[in-house]
Design a protein that fits this description.
Radius of gyration: 15 Å
Number of helices: 4
Helix content: over 70%
Mean pLDDT: 90
Strand content: under 5%
């Protein structure tokens, strides 16, 4: 959803709104929380079916900060494009992580 929102914002030639940025922060917080729950499950003996699940989880947590560091202080016009692409990448990772989970 955030990926499509970012791309639509970019192609409409609009700047990122406060709501869009707040949704990015909320998205990141939810992935960090989900990762913490996953670590707790691991400590309680639950294991994912596929070890790639760990890679997907780590990538989901670091993609937005990497995108943020890329657009920080640069052309604000490209900001929604970068976040849109990152959002679509994260959607794909999320789907893939679900298929490799417990």
């Amino acid at each position: 959803m955030i990926g499509v929102w970012g791309l639509v914002t970019y192609f409409r030639k609009q700047p990122s709104s406060g709501g869009f940025r707040a949704t990015l922060v909320l998205t990141e917080a939810l992935f960090v929380l989900q990762g913490a729950v996953g670590v707790l499950m691991f400590l309680n003996g639950r294991r994912p079916h596929d070890n790639l699940h760990w890679l997907y989880g780590v990538l989901l947590v670091i993609v937005l900060p990497i995108a943020m560091s890329y657009v920080s202080g640069r052309d604000l016009r490209r900001e929604p494009l970068v976040y849109g692409i990152a959002g679509l990448f994260m959607a794909g990772l999320s789907i893939r992580a679900l298929t490799t989970g417990a």
